[in-house]
Structure formats: structure tokens, C-alpha cells
Design goal:
Beta-Lactamase; six-stranded antiparallel sheet; 10 helices; 272 residues; three-stranded antiparallel sheet; 19% strand; alpha+beta
């Protein structure tokens, strides 16, 4: 008789009332991906096993499959595993994200060229702000955010725009996902939301870089729901190559965001 796989044995040991649809092998693989997503420099097989509470042999089998499928990469110089961009590429094949980036990308690039400022588009993902598009202007000096970056919710103007029009229940769920331990930043975040709703955009001094003012505008879908935020990290260049003032850039950004929302079907659902 053929021997059962160890993962099947684990399923057989379920206690009454436990989830009968568990898939231990899948869970282990997802645990690895989620852990590596938080580790910029990668981790060794032993470190991954210790953190996840697994044996090195269990982790080894999962890592071999994930390597073969192209989800993780092994740096043979230090034996550290890290994520590849495959998950990010898969996410961009998801129709809503693909439609967002395809419609907004050209408009963002044209605006970046016209006002000589870089910009990025972000959505919410697991309580953080995820950058799904980034365009640069042609100037030698720019401020850019890495494509695929996941930024703490409270440290962004994008997050304020994405949260400002949420109902109480949805906002509470978002705050739970964002996590605790940042009460002062969370309080400042919540204080800003009514003004963002009132004026239709967020404008804040950067929470991470001195001398940068973030201007963020909402992108809405056919229901009028805010599905993304486009943000200009506005910089004033001492070289004199700025082509518009910060007020001018904000006006251009709001007009572009409204036009993209119209193309997504927002129509009359865009608040005035």
C-alpha cells in the first residue's frame, strides 16, 4: 500500500469541530511567502523554519517547489531566500488592477511631463498602502516611490484619501488591519479625514522626507467608491526647473484624477 503524504496524515489528526477543509501544504507555502514579503534581505532556510515553527525538512520541500515555480529566489552566496516579483506580476494581471494601471498610466505620464513632477498610484492591501504604478518626469532630480512598495497606512497622504470616504464599519476594519502600536499617528490620521472629505484631496508635508509635500487625489470606480489614490511628492527645485506652483500641480492632479474616474465609469457618482 502506498504511503500517505505527511500532509494527508496531518489532516487525519483533525479534532472534532476543526476545519475539515484545511490544506496544510498550501498553508505552509503561503506562510513562507507572507513571511518573506516582510524581509527585505531574505532569510535562510533555518531562519524561516524557526520563525514559522516548522522543521527544516518541511520548509525545504516547500522552498524547492516555490523556487521551481519562480516565487522565491535563492542567493547561493549566503543561502538566503527572497521573494521574486512573480506575485507582483500576478497581481497586475488581475483585471481591476490591470484596468486601473492601463487607464491611469498614460494620463499620469502626460501630467508628470507637463508639470515636471513624478507621481505614483496606490491601493489598499492588507492594511497598508501598495504602490501599483510609478511614473517619473524628465528632470534630473526626482522623488520617486518604489513600484510594489508597501507603506504603513498612517504615514501616507494616499492612505488618507483611500480612507476618507469609508463608512464607519469599513474604516474600523481597515484600522484593525493596519494594526496597533502607532496611536499618535493613528490619531493624526483620523483627525485629517474630515478635511480630506471636505476639500476632496489630501495635502501633507511628507511623513518620511523633509522638504517634500505630498498631494493626493482620489480615483473612483463606477459606483463612486475610491479605489485608488494618485499622489505627487511635490518638490521645489532650487535649479528653477519647476514649471508650476504647488497650487497649480494640485489643480492639474485633481483634474487628471477626475478624468480617469470618468473613464472608469464614475460619471455622476463623483462628489462635487
Amino acid at each position: 500500500m502506498a504511503r500517505k503524504d505527511s500532509d494527508e496524515d496531518e489532516d487525519d489528526l483533525l479534532e472534532p469541530g476543526e476545519d475539515k477543509y484545511r490544506a496544510p501544504a498550501l498553508s505552509k507555502g503561503l506562510d513562507i511567502l507572507e513571511y518573506l514579503a516582510t524581509e527585505y534581505e531574505g532569510r535562510t532556510q533555518a531562519e524561516i523554519a524557526k520563525t514559522l515553527g516548522r522543521t527544516t525538512s518541511e520548509i525545504f520541500r516547500m522552498l524547492m517547489v516555490l523556487r521551481k515555480r519562480g516565487y522565491v529566489h535563492l542567493n547561493e552566496e549566503d543561502d538566503r531566500y527572497s521573494l521574486t516579483t512573480k506575485l507582483f506580476e500576478i497581481a497586475h494581471r488581475h483585471p481591476p488592477v490591470r484596468r486601473l494601471t492601463s487607464i491611469a498610466g498614460e494620463a499620469m505620464q502626460k501630467l508628470a511631463n507637463r508639470i515636471n513632477q513624478s507621481m505614483h498610484m496606490a491601493i489598499l492591501h492588507s492594511g497598508k498602502v501598495l504602490v501599483i504604478a510609478q511614473v517619473d518626469c524628465s528632470d534630473n532630480n526626482i522623488t520617486a516611490v518604489r513600484l510594489g512598495a508597501q507603506i504603513p497606512l498612517y504615514d501616507t497622504s494616499s492612505g488618507r484619501v483611500l480612507a476618507a470616504w469609508m463608512d464607519d464599519e469599513t474604516l474600523a476594519s481597515l484600522l484593525d488591519e493596519a494594526g496597533t502600536g502607532a496611536e499618535d499617528r493613528q490619531s493624526a490620521f483620523l483627525r485629517d479625514l474630515p478635511e480630506v472629505r471636505a476639500v476632496g484631496y489630501a495635502q501633507n508635508e511628507s511623513f518620511t522626507i523633509a522638504g517634500v509635500t505630498n498631494i493626493s487625489a482620489p480615483i473612483r470606480d463606477m459606483t463612486g467608491r475610491v479605489v485608488a489614490a494618485v499622489t505627487i511628492p511635490f518638490i521645489r527645485r532650487l535649479s528653477g526647473t519647476n514649471t508650476v506652483s504647488i497650487d497649480g500641480a494640485r489643480g492639474e492632479l485633481l483634474a487628471m484624477a477626475a478624468a480617469v474616474s470618468q473613464r472608469l465609469g464614475a460619471g455622476a457618482n463623483i462628489p462635487t
